[in-house]
Write a structure and sequence with these properties.
- The structure is a homotetramer of 360-residue chains.
- The first copy, chain A, has 360 residues and is an alpha/beta fold.
- Chain A has two domains: 162 residues, Rossmann fold (3-Layer(aba) Sandwich); 175 residues, Dihydrodipicolinate Reductase, domain 2 (2-Layer Sandwich).
- The first copy, chain A, is built from eleven helices and 14 strands.
- In chain A, α6 links the parallel β6 and β7.
- In chain A, α1 packs across α11 and α7 runs parallel beside α9.
- Chains in contact: A-B, A-C, A-D, B-C, B-D, C-D.
- Chains A and D meet through β8, β10, β11, β13 and β14 of A and β8, β10, β11, β13 and β14 of D.
């Protein structure tokens, strides 16, 4: 049965992608989008690709309206905002899929450490499900509150969870060196995003302390715990760079195996193939020939795919794992809709089968 | 009823887009793709976005196979090649949609002038229909041989045909200054397309003598003739530049009205609105506010839209008309499939409703 | 003898280029730079390429300080501002080189028409010399107030003045279709210059009414008048597009000759060769072979060159003339310094011999 | 006294930069450039920025000519080629500065391992000096054969040598994640460098086994040994990605300190400041405010600077060190000329003081 859905704060880039996909999703009726600053304006005034295509207007945010019109809402609000009204939304009985970071972390202390404030409703942190379909499919199906994974975090977790689950790598150190396009910093402009300043740069913008670090650690720790009954604390060294693109993330994870337990390439292949076998949107890309032997964001822009590939470095007992995804799709709106599909009982890939454009 | 279709020379960029769209087109079964150099290889070995998605392989070209398997074939061969086997294909009863320039020009002398060779089957030039759905919808529906418009030509014709039809502009001079991404020069690499050489350039690559000049003149002359019974020879000054993009064309047409018959903006609006009223893929983009007031290829990449906009320049009795389109979609594969939809009796927009990604 | 120079409003992009060139100019001592917002900050805090290289600080604007310290000042203020204090500067005896548009137009009515305000000191308009060294070398040598040409205007005038002077073309219509990088819109950021919005676009931002239109007309008219004693009013159709680059302009001029007086290519070659023979920074780039047969901004970034090339279009009695230059150098700071060199009696190319980087 | 210099194989991108800098170098006379394929052509036919500027022609390679005309030659030949004629060049008494990798490695077994062939003159490997002025200034001054450092290697070594020398970090693991523009793959084009394929990519092209790994290890080991009398084998995990640029490298090194010996930020500052104090081209870029707080290739294109910056990650005892340089200048031609200046007794920065363009 068709669901009525809304998007709170639909003007940002993740919101724009939600509208794009939901407006053509055969199982839902998108009937409510909000934006504080754009009330009364058409969506296509901000997203020019929708001119002549979609006539929906931005409205004011109202829990009452949500109650009346929506079975499920997506939240595109900034970090720190959704916690103020999610309890109310849950009370009126709508499912909530939050694209902000507010409900991603299970531990309120970690939240405080990384987001520099007390969480407004820490009692919901355990109830919320981390919105990464591949790791939490079962819980997502039953969830009322889903906190969609951060873009860098999704990329790093997809790269590493199969290796962690199968105990192929040492948990220390784990280095994740991530590269992202400019849309990752959102629709709000500033001096640093001015085209003459941002273009042609390789900008090391968050070498340490990036907030996605906490998500990655939480999820890898959970995978480790589940598969080994170990309570090992996992720490990752995560660093993020801006590159000369609008869309796309490539994360390069440098991880190590114990030299006493050397690994063969075919073992790694097997681990990933097994992990991704039933995953509709994770692809193992590791070829010996061709131009695109390893993942490259160029090939997945606009799609819900996360491409993962690896190379074994016998020289220093290292595995290099790459993951490419579109930060606005698999890193945000696409994963959110995949979660919705699960939570609503729709086929998991509904609305998400766009295959990308090549070359672009 | 579903049609079986094939693509001859599917490895080029227009061929790649044909595969992308046709493989997800609900009314056709794509069951044959050829490439001389790639026989036995999977399509996704060349188009990495199709890994895990599509398992079709390149086969050898064979009229016999076409006869057995296809109701309709698209030709992605280089200019000068399709004329050698189109007669045979028509003989075996398949419809042919040719993306090369071989059958675009009605006049074999013009063909010879611009393509520097005698046409191999000039008797087919009148039978062939110029593949621009908006101008030749009726003929395309009945055609067996369709010659899809060139990318720059489509852009220029969309910009100008409403003004020509309504006699709003002088036919001399007509200046078309076109800008295109690097995919326009095709999948074959050379020194000039080497990334360090081609990137960051504004390359004036065909200031005069561009082959699309002949198509533009032919079609504008036909529009003029139809609406005025005049036999006026039309000449256009067409110039093409490569800009720092992979996809997209923006053409800027500079045309003039008679100062004795001054024009008002609202007249021009009316002419375009009337012309595009029932066109599923032509949009008039002329706004007084916003960032994207006029067409910009950025907003239509991957789509089958051609966006047209104008500004009136009272200063010198000029109208500047812009047309943005994706050279590989509305400038090639998309128009080809729109033609197929017409020729096969499918809804005209089948398979062509992708709305584009923003920002990109 | 060395001159002391200052830059008023040195924080903008043209100001930054002035500092770059002047700080290494062997004949001047740059001892004063101002910026309202950056008083007390080092120049290298804004222009990171100057870290460890230059220790000059932004100071407050003061006519008194200028009088004490400077023989000559460059003005990098916005349009409409310099007219408020230029008279005072001239009174204290410094030479003024204004990069804004305030003193470019000779006719106060034209100023009012294009800049939408009354000029504050119209009596200076005749005294001011238009800062295009190639056309006004003699006056610049004696000038106290020089108004450096606009970037698009310089490009268009360089392309066309030899043809106008030699009466090779009709004065109506003259179409100039210009393409520019994002630095042309200056250091002030806004929604439209946000990298995700501005990148990958071909943005038709000023199809009609661009302010440089008036400069181009004024200068071409003057050239025409000088060589023919004609008082013909000249109107040009100028249109400007933003392309996917930071620096560089390519203008494409479409001009016509009388079909009764057909032109040969060698005549045009001769006209340009003669015109540019003694010009240190104008190059005729029109080759039959090679990748860069015609001007391309890629090859001149950072330099003071303006490259001009042409193609003759017999098809419609058209000459297409291209001019590539760096909008911040030959289109602003470089021309300003070339003017200074003339006005101060230095060798004309002092400080301006950087040859550019290739590939870039 | 002025030296006569030549460039063997000057057509490649490093060769082009050599010509650019040497042709304006006040202490040398560039009087011989060779290229097998371009004999008789002007340099400016390949490097269009030199049109009207430089009239030197490519000649045939001849040891006799070198002997007659040159005091010193630069070799821009591919890897594996210079070893075939360097002995002969040394015999005729010219100094040789080789930009290929042939003489970088001291250990012929390492050479064989990484370059897959026996070295033709292993007896010269010890005599050759590794061309990194900051580490080998003394030897370079006396050297007859200098092997200029690889571009990625230079970037990584500049980032790490101060930390290694002062024993601030553990030698295992050392991870270097490098990002480079497309000019790094040279002037030879292929399918993978075709603009539509290479543009907009983040291409992980050498995750393991990159040849520069050996250089980095050799040099860091030497630094370690010199400062600690240790013979510790050093292994680094080096990975290289292509990003959407023509020029520039940013390397991100992830290194670790012993948690028993925690480090403070000010110690690291001190180590770098001390190391770079007298270095004309190494800058420490680590700021708390501003847009360019850490190195970014955008700010150094065309210059001989290597900018190094760091962030301390207490979270996991990590130091992230960044180094930005222009792969064709400080990563090739610039370092080569800095070596020449040392070897010829010229001021070390002669010809190398270009400060870069901003914004670009």
């Amino acid at each position: 049965m068709e669901k009525n859905v809304g998007i709170i704060a639909a003007s940002g880039y993740a919101g724009g992608e939600l509208v794009r996909i939901l407006s053509q999703h055969e199982k839902v009726n998108l009937n409510y989008i909000t934006s504080r600053k754009l009330i009364g304006k058409y969506f296509h005034q901000i997203y020019p690709n929708f001119r002549n295509v979609l006539d929906i207007k931005f409205e004011e945010f109202s829990v009452k309206t949500i109650k009346e019109r929506c079975d499920l809402v997506f939240l595109g609000v900034p970090h720190g905002v959704s916690q103020d009204f999610v309890p109310e939304l849950l009370d009126v009985g709508v499912k909530v899929i939050d694209l902000s970071a507010d409900f991603r972390l299970k531990d309120k202390e970690q939240y405080k450490k990384y987001y520099k404030k007390e969480h407004a409703c820490p009692y919901l942190l355990q109830e919320a499900v981390y919105g990464l379909p591949e790791l939490h499919r079962k819980e997502i199906k039953k969830a009322n509150l889903i906190a969609v994974a951060g873009c860098h975090a999704a990329s790093a977790i997809y790269a590493l969870y199969p290796l962690v689950r199968e105990h192929l790598i040492k948990m220390d150190p784990i280095i994740i060196d991530s590269k992202t396009g400019s849309s990752g910093s959102g629709a709000t402009f500033n001096e640093a995003t001015h085209h003459p300043i941002r273009a042609n740069s390789i900008r090391p913008y968050a070498m340490t302390g990036h907030r996605h670090t906490a998500e990655i650690e939480q999820e890898l720790m959970a995978v480790k715990k589940e598969s080994s009954a170990s309570n090992q604390i996992v720490k990752v060294g995560f660093s993020a760079h801006g590159v000369n693109l609008v869309r796309g993330i490539l994360s390069t994870s440098h991880v190590f195996f114990d030299e006493k337990n050397p690994i063969e390439e075919k073992q790694i292949f097997k681990v990933y193939r097994t992990a991704f076998k039933n995953e509709p949107f994770l692809r193992l890309i590791t070829q010996k020939t061709g131009i695109f032997r390893l993942p490259d964001p160029k090939t997945i822009i606009g799609t819900n795919y996360a491409d993962v590939g690896f190379q074994l470095d016998d020289h220093m007992n290292r595995i290099v794992v790459l993951c490419a995804l579109d930060n606005l799709v698999k890193g945000a709106a696409g994963n959110a809709i995949q979660c919705m599909n699960l939570a609503c009982g729709f086929p998991e890939d509904t609305g998400l089968t766009f295959t990308g454009l090549f070359p672009i």
